Every structure is written in structure tokens, then in C-alpha cells.
Amino acid sequence: MEKRFLNKIALITGSTEGIGFSIAQRLGREGAKVVICSRKQEKVTKAVEQLKVENLDCLGVVCHVGIEDDRRNLIEKTIEKYGGIDILVCNVAVNPHHGNIFEIDERQWDKIFDINVKSTFLLIKQAIPFLKQRKDSNVLIISSIAGYYPSQIIAPYSISKTPLIGMTKAMGPACAELGIRVNCIAPGVIKTKFSKAFWYDEPIYNDCFMKRVGYSDEVAATAAFLCSNDASYITGETIICAGGANARL
Prior knowledge:
It holds the Pfam family adh_short_C2. This protein has seven helices and seven strands, in the order βαβαβαβαβαβααβ. By secondary structure, it is of the alpha/beta class. Helix 4 runs parallel beside helix 5 (about 155-175). The longest helix has 26 residues, at about 105-130.
């Protein structure tokens, strides 16, 4: 495998399983030193062990991205271990509500937006001073096809994914002035535990041209491209990785 990330440090949130883990694994296989995190120590420990089986250089940190001190600790531990941050991937997301949009309660609504939107912005803001010190640094935000094409099953989650597309575009000019690229991926239905309701029983393809679910390593391959110098003239963009599913704002 091509080593596009030698001497690069990549910090990936929500990265002990699913899409986040696959991104960490792919960047690590291409030479990056990777920092993974999750709210639960047992998940962090298991993911680190999996990466080390492949002799990948990695660090695991327990972090609740919705807590400022945890975000600060995550960045500090990364700097302490590796001396910088070249790539920040904001993948973490929650979805505590399924069903009718009007049945969600305020606590669930706040949790969705605090984690999926607010913490993404604040972590990027906290990481900017370190990213701007590096050459060819970049930020990658993971949104969702649901941000374009809301699902009635997970409508509040879908709503929370649309601002990430706008955030990417809005951050583009300010990041460019600092020498930082910022891009976004909107995955379709990916076969992970997080999206099990969409593929386990009767697959929901949302008009996907390819009529199949996607896989985490397919999103990871897209992430590796956007985080590499192969995408050196791409910023402020959202790449839809959804098998041709309809996407329009």
C-alpha cells in the first residue's frame, strides 16, 4: 500500500469501531501515526490492540467530545506523544432517537446537536493552533447522506448532519488562510453497527444506484484521498460516498 502519510499524525474521533476505526486503520497502513478515541476505555483498549496487531503506530485516549476538558486532554495527549497534529478527522456522532420526529424529547435533541454539531466545531477550533503549525494539514468532517436526504426514521439525526456540510464550506476560507484544507464526506448506508436498522432486516437504499450497502473501508479510502496531497487543490467540499444516492440541498 502506498505510504502517503509517513511522518503525519492523524487524530480521529469516534474511532474504535465502524467508519472511524476503518479511517484510522487506513491512514495507519499508509504510514500515519494515529490517535483514536472513544468514551469507553474497553473500546479504546480493544481498538488499540487491533491496530497494534498490524504494527501500526497508535495511541488510544478516552474522550467524551462533548466535554471541553476531555477535548483538551485529547489534544494534549496527542501533542505529548507525537508532537503535533497534521490531520483531524471528526467522525463521532450519536443518535439516541428513532421514530416520529415530534416524539423526540428536549434532552435527546440537545444531545444530538451538542455532539454531532457543536462538539465538532469546538474540537476543530481547539485543534487549529496545532494544525496551522504543520505543512499540508487538513480537517475532515464526516456528515451523512441523511444530511441531504433526511430519513424519517432518524429525522433529528439527519437534521444534525446538514450543518456539517455548511460548516465545511464556511470554514474553507478561514482555514485556507492558515494553510489548512477542510473537507467533508457524506457516507450513504454503510454496514456498521451504528446503521444496523437500515441494512439488517430489509435494506433501505435511499434510491442508491448501486442497490447495495457500502462498507467502512470504502469510506476510509475516500478519507485517505481527501487527507492526502492527492487532494491538494480540494477544500471546502463535500464528497458523497453513497453509491449514487440522490443528494441535493
